[in-house]
UniProtKB/TrEMBL annotation:
PANTHER family in the record: HYBRID SIGNAL TRANSDUCTION HISTIDINE KINASE C, TWO-COMPONENT HISTIDINE KINASE
Enzyme class per UniProt: transferase
Ranges where the PAS domain occurs: 1-63
NCBIfam families in the cross-refs: sensory_box (TIGR00229)
This enzyme's EC code(s): 2.7.13.3
Positions of modified residues (4-aspartylphosphate): 590
Native source species: Azohydromonas lata
Domain Histidine kinase: 299-516
Gene Ontology MF terms: ATP binding
A UniProt-annotated Pfam family: HisKA
Protein name: histidine kinase
Length: 670
């Protein structure tokens, strides 16, 4: 039978029950001796009973129609919400009895309550949406959301936290606290909050604790919750790609029985706020990238114009003056400035290659000491120009790295150049190296401008120029430290920076893996020595293939000054015609030619039985490893990257002359 949902009742004129009422008995389970007189009130919920009796007595006294709402215990022990209506029955002008009904309205009241709760929830969510819609700062968005949620729930505190990549350490960057309650902002370890917190949050489940001391205890994380004044908490975590990335928590300083609606509300607010925060962060990142791009392009233009100006002045001076001293000065300026431009371009290319995964380290066992000395030589012009004092604390020859020697020199050289740039003239710089455990440690310290604490997190980002150093920095694209970081990580190492703030100097520390004890000792790298030009070799027949008229003309002039017979061509077909006429012993061949590229020209020369013996040297602005492989496959003997150092060109010509003279026939030279 369906459950009884309505009761028909009647009482005496003074409100007592004195006869059996089957419908009341069926609903409440009371027997007549239990509900006789005023016993029926015992079925009313204890919290409602006093009010019901008071209003019932008032109705009896007034003798009018009445309506009451209260909770009534059903025969199964459940309390149901009922609406009771009654009216007096008169006889001879006096109340003879009362009759009425009690109707179970639980479903209707619950539906109404759910509708009100839903409307309230939607109004609150809309309030958060309206309050944060125009915000463009993630921290401000977190703060507004935390305040509104905390106030809505009447909580002690509401906090937002970002979780580090280790899935444990998290930082509360923004929280809202009730007046007089301290902030919980800071860095914490999730493991300290107990196994329930770590398990739930790392697996995408809410952590809901109604009573920290009773449910967790000290061993279960209660000690850490109590340390920041938490006795009850709802904490929702965001898991992406299997990793906990963020959390939002509502704190209470006394035990609290969280309702399903409150728990649901926190979860929904968290989902919505995270989505908005991520949009804000993505927009901010795009704006930052756009700003970096504009700053980078402006800086690049500035950095390229800087060396071009003295080059132009030097050229003008060469035209106007025949004085040997002035000409030597002009030559020095041109050489230094073109070297600077080449270094600038090499750094840009290195960053691009690393980003695209095109750099392959050539690691071997190598002593650290000579690499540090070589790095000093690369930075020596900057150090000497600013009259810095350099202190060296070098390791012994037994400290061996498992590393790419050229890249180690590049990293340490960049750090030394950076120290020279951001240290006032006449400053102190220290370079030290030692072994610690399984790592080699390199440290570059200076007493320069230092780095404010609020800017240190940006230091290794691409194209970063710190605002405080604008007056001291001597140019640069802001890629040196980013390059150091990426190269160190490629080696399986790391780089970190320490500075106590503005004008407190900086210390950069690089850690790189030591070579295994069983590895063979590496051969110390040879210092780069620019030797005097070798004695002029026998004249060679040389073909220069270059579509840049100025580049071609200057290269031809240089080779002719060295005593060689030179022909030139500006494209592939002309190169083949000139080769057939000259029968060159050496071909300097640009790759980016119009119509027919340099690799195709090389393949055709190698296929010609009368021309295949010529030494082919690629002369190109493309210097990546895959470019070198491409030229080797096309039949080139060597690959020179523009701008080519004159010494490197002389060395190639010299080896070609030696080969032509029969010294090392058939050998490949590079």
């Amino acid at each position: 039978m369906p459950p009884t949902t309505a009761i028909v009742w009647h009482t005496t004129s003074d409100g007592r029950i004195d006869v059996e009422n089957p419908s009341w008995q069926a609903f409440t389970g009371q027997h007549l001796d239990e509900y006789r007189g005023w016993g029926w009130s015992q079925a009313v919920h204890p919290e409602d009973r006093e009010g019901v009796l008071r209003r019932w007595h008032a109705a009896v006294e007034a003798g009018g129609v009445f309506v009451l709402h209260y909770r009534l215990r059903r025969h199964d022990g459940q309390y149901r919400e009922v609406m009771s209506q009654g009216a007096p029955v008169f006889c001879g002008g006096a109340v003879r009895e009362w009759v009425g009904t009690c109707v179970d309205v639980t479903a209707e009241r619950r539906a109404q309550a759910a509708l009100r709760a839903s409307e309230e929830r939607l109004r609150f969510l809309d309030c958060i949406g309206q309050a944060t819609r125009g915000l463009t700062d993630a921290t401000e968005t977190m703060a507004v959301t935390a305040r509104l949620l905390g106030e809505h729930l009447g909580a002690m505190r509401c906090a937002y936290a970002d979780v580090e990549a280790d899935n444990d350490r998290f930082t509360i960057r923004s929280d809202w606290s009730r007046a007089g309650v301290p902030s919980s902002a800071g860095v914490y370890s999730l493991d300290l909050f107990g196994p329930q917190a770590t398990s739930n949050l790392r697996n995408g489940r809410h952590l809901v604790v109604n009573d920290v001391d009773r449910e967790l205890g000290d061993a279960g994380g209660g000690r850490m919750f109590n340390a920041i004044g938490i006795k009850a908490v709802i904490c929702a975590g965001l898991v992406k790609q299997g990793r906990l990335v963020a959390m939002m928590a509502v704190h209470q300083d006394v035990p609290r029985r969280w309702t399903p609606q409150e728990i649901s509300m926190v979860g929904e607010v968290v989902e919505r706020s995270w989505a908005h925060i991520e949009r804000v962060r993505a927009d901010a990142k795009l704006r930052e990238q756009d700003r970096h791009k504009d700053e980078f392009l402006a800086t690049l233009a500035h950095e390229l114009r800087n060396p071009l100006a003295p080059i132009k002045y030097a050229i003008a001076m060469l035209r106007l003056s025949a004085d040997p001293g002035r000409q030597a000065q002009a030559h020095g300026v041109i050489e230094r400035q073109t070297t600077h431009m080449a270094r600038l371009i090499d750094d840009l290319l290195d960053v691009s290659r690393i980003s695209r995964g095109l750099i392959t380290l050539q690691c071997r066992s190598v002593p650290l000491r000579p690499l540090l000395l070589e790095a000093v030589e690369t930075a020596r012009p900057a150090l000497d120009a600013a009259r810095h004092r350099l202190a060296l604390e070098l390791p012994g020859e037994d400290v061996l790295l498992d590393a790419d020697p050229a890249r180690v020199v590049q990293m340490v050289g960049n750090l030394l150049s950076n120290a020279a740039k951001y240290t006032p003239d006449g400053g102190d710089i220290r370079l030290a190296g030692w072994a610690a455990g399984g790592q080699a440690v390199v440290e570059v310290a200076d007493n320069g401008v230092g780095v404010p604490l609020d800017q240190q997190g940006r230091l290794f980002q691409m194209f970063t120029q710190l605002h405080h150093s604008a007056g001291r920095a001597q140019g640069g694209l802001g890629i040196g430290l980013s390059l150091v970081k990426r190269l160190a990580e490629m080696h399986g190492g790391a780089v970190r920076m320490r500075s106590d703030g503005l004008d407190e100097g900086s210390t950069f520390t690089v850690e790189l893996p030591l070579a295994q004890a069983v590895a063979r000792p590496g051969v110390p790298p040879q210092a780069q020595v620019h030797e005097a030009p070798p004695p002029r070799a026998a004249a060679l027949r040389v073909l220069v293939v270059e579509d840049n008229p100025d580049g071609s003309a200057m290269l031809v002039s240089l080779l002719e000054a060295l005593g060689h017979r030179v022909a030139r061509a500006a494209d592939g077909p002309e190169a083949l015609r000139q080769a057939a006429a000259l029968r060159p012993q050496l071909v300097l061949l640009d790759l980016g030619l119009p119509g027919m590229d340099g690799c195709e020209v090389a393949r055709r020369l190698r296929a010609d039985s009368e021309l295949c013996g010529a030494a082919l040297v690629a002369l190109t602005g493309w210097g990546a490893e895959r470019d070198r492989l491409r030229t080797a496959e096309a039949g080139f003997d060597a690959h020179l990257t523009k701008p080519v150092e004159p010494d490197a060109l002389r060395a190639v010509v010299s080896r070609c002359a030696s080969r032509a003279a029969g010294e090392g026939q058939g050998t490949h030279f590079a």
